[in-house]
Design goal:
Radius of gyration of chain A: 16 Å
CATH superfamily of chain A: Thiamin diphosphate (ThDP)-binding fold, Pyr/PP domains
Structural class of chain B: alpha/beta
Shape of chain A: globular
Distance between the termini of chain A: 7 Å
Strand order of the largest sheet of chain A: 1-2-3-5-4
Largest interface: A-B, 28 and 30 residues
CATH architecture of the largest domain in chain B: 3-Layer(aba) Sandwich
CATH topology of the largest domain in chain B: Rossmann fold
Strand content of chain B: 15-25%
CATH topology of chain A: Rossmann fold
Order of helices and strands of chain B: HEHEHEHHEHEHEEEHEHEHEHH
Radius of gyration of chain B: 19 Å
Structural class of chain A: alpha/beta
Distance between the termini of chain B: 37 Å
Oligomer: heterodimer
Number of helices of chain A: 7
Largest sheet of chain B: 6 strands, parallel
Helix content of chain A: 25-40%
Number of domains of chain B: 2
Number of strands of chain A: 5
Strand content of chain A: 5-15%
CATH architecture of chain A: 3-Layer(aba) Sandwich
């Protein structure tokens, strides 16, 4: 693992990750999400351990449920879960599995693992919040570039774009792992359907934060975070 | 029955701000007035059944009570993993309301038939299944389902019985006899009543096969005379895949000697069109076939 540890809090992540690594099943993708997750929880999302059940909180949905070590480390760093939970991931008595379970882990909004479910569920969450007059929360869902292979995502992309579901933000972590790639670019799959889009390098945290805040009224937003494959 | 569903849904949308309808184009025109009255709670995602089911899950995660609706094969089979993961595994529920039943769309062919829907739901935990046999049973079943958050499937059919019955989940005896028990589920009651005319059997009706009213079944079976050396006969007549309820009946009767006979729709793809009645007959569910089968079982 090579990364610049910029802040004391973020420096904690390295230590937290080492508590998890022994059991990591999907090692190659384990940390591709780390920068995005950190920027989201540190600078973007309006959610904290004290607002877990607040209807007005922002929702973060990890759709790419593979390699959740970075997710658990960030949740521990931000106080959602005890650090001690990190030591026994994947064991019978641990709430932390190789794919997260919302019924076991505070702060986890959806149980994921099977690819292609998070974005369509996020559409439903955004619609449900709007139907209840909750117009402030953002619904941010994180996917992988290979996960976009799943056709269910494209049902969601088309519908959310056509209906201007502006509470919704998708973050696609692009480590170029899709078997057949995305000729023409990942952004184009979204922009063709009316989404606003930004593509950034995930190591440039200021750019990432700017891109995540660049959502606009009337259309859903996507941020493609290009990352080096990390192991 | 389908019109009764539209009317009942209009009423619950008006009365209960927690309810929301999710469609995938099927019945969209019928729900247009509902959508005008409640634009944020009547959602048509287009011909996207995976999205329909995931949206239902997402709505439920925000505390709403979603009602998702389509043809049975597109509602239950096409987006099966979404039912398993985006509802059950998330720990949320929805009300799924299908039309088409096993072969109401007989002339449309196999693509529009769904005899296996309830057998599929039996692989998951916690589903209540209603198979109303009359339009007047739809509204109370739907209304009751909006009052909690557990998963509920309501299977609407084109065929219907002569009159409605109770909707409290219990098996209700309609005709008393001594030689055996025939349980008709949903719209199977009408052909079963015709088939058993003059036979010395108890005929009971169920419109809630899940959870199966095991206590009611046991009570009815106690009053049935078993032939010497044999268990009492029970015949389940279901308008969906033959044998779907066999395990539920067996679990209810583990300590009572009995002989279970399951009648229903077969597994074979008939590659036929025609009418629903012709499909019923092909599966032995017309009154004449039922009478012959039940008579031979009870002798």
């Amino acid at each position: 693992m090579t990364m610049t540890l910029a802040t004391p809090q973020r420096a904690d992540l390295g230590r937290l990750l080492t508590r998890l690594t022994g059991d990591e099943k999907h090692a190659p993708s384990a940390y591709s999400t780390l920068d995005v997750l950190w920027v989201l929880y540190d600078r973007v999302l309006r959610v904290s351990p004290s607002t877990l059940d607040d209807p007005d909180r922002d929702r973060f949905l990890l759709s790419k449920g593979h390699g959740p070590a970075a997710y658990y480390a960030v949740l521990a760093a931000k106080g959602f879960i005890p650090e001690a939970w990190l030591d026994h991931m994947g064991t019978w008595d641990s709430p932390l599995g190789h794919h997260p379970d919302r019924n076991r882990v505070p702060g986890v909004e959806i149980s994921s693992g099977s690819l292609g479910h998070g974005l369509p569920i996020a559409v439903g969450v955004a619609l449900g919040l709007r139907a209840q007059g909750l117009l402030r929360p953002r619904v941010v869902v994180l996917l992988g570039d290979a996960e976009l292979d799943e056709g269910s995502n494209h049902e969601a992309i088309a519908y959310a774009g056509a209906t201007g579901l502006d509470a919704l933000t998708a973050v696609v972590v692009d480590n170029r792992s899709a078997t057949h790639g995305w000729p023409g670019g990942i952004e184009s799959r979204f922009t063709a359907n009316g989404w606003s889009a930004r593509t950034v390098d995930d190591r440039a945290h200021d750019d990432l934060a700017d891109a995540l805040h660049a959502n606009a009224p009337g259309r859903p937003h996507v941020v493609v975070a290009v990352t080096e494959t990390k192991g | 029955m389908r019109d009764a569903f539209y009317a009942a849904t209009a009423a619950v949308l008006d009365d209960d701000p927690r309810t929301a309808v999710v469609l995938a184009d099927i019945s969209a025109a019928a729900f247009a007035p509902h959508a005008r009255a409640h634009p944020d709670r009547v959602i048509n995602v287009g011909i996207r059944e995976q999205l329909m089911m995931s949206v239902a899950g997402g709505l439920a995660l925000t505390g709403l009570r979603p009602i998702a609706h389509s043809y049975a094969p597109f509602l239950i089979e096409r987006a099966w993993e979404q039912i398993k993961l985006d509802l059950n595994h998330q720990g949320v529920g929805a009300i799924l309301v299908s039309v088409g039943a096993s072969h109401d769309a007989s002339a449309s062919g196999r693509t529009h038939h769904s005899p296996g829907d309830i057998a599929l739901l039996d692989t998951l935990d916690g589903w209540t299944v209603h198979v109303p046999g009359h339009a007047s049973e739809v509204a109370p079943l739907l209304r009751a389902a909006t009052r909690h958050d557990a998963p509920v499937y309501i299977r609407l059919a084109g065929a219907h019985n002569d009159r409605p019955h109770q909707t409290d989940g219990r098996i209700v005896p309609l005709r008393r006899g001594s030689r055996g028990l025939v349980v008709a589920v949903g719209p199977m009651l009408r052909p079963v009543l015709a088939a058993t005319e003059g036979l010395d059997v108890t005929v009971a009706y169920a419109n809630t096969p899940r959870p199966l009213d095991g206590d009611g079944l046991r009570e009815l079976l106690w009053h049935t005379t078993a032939p010497a050396g044999r268990g009492a006969s029970i015949v389940m007549v279901e308008p969906y895949l033959r044998g779907t309820s066999a395990h539920a009946v067996s679990e209810a009767l583990t300590d009572i000697p009995h002989r279970l006979h399951s009648l229903g729709v077969g597994r074979e793809d008939l590659h036929r069109y025609g009418t629903p009645e012709e499909h019923d007959a092909a599966h032995g569910l017309d009154p004449a076939s039922l009478r012959a089968t039940i008579s031979s079982i009870m002798n």
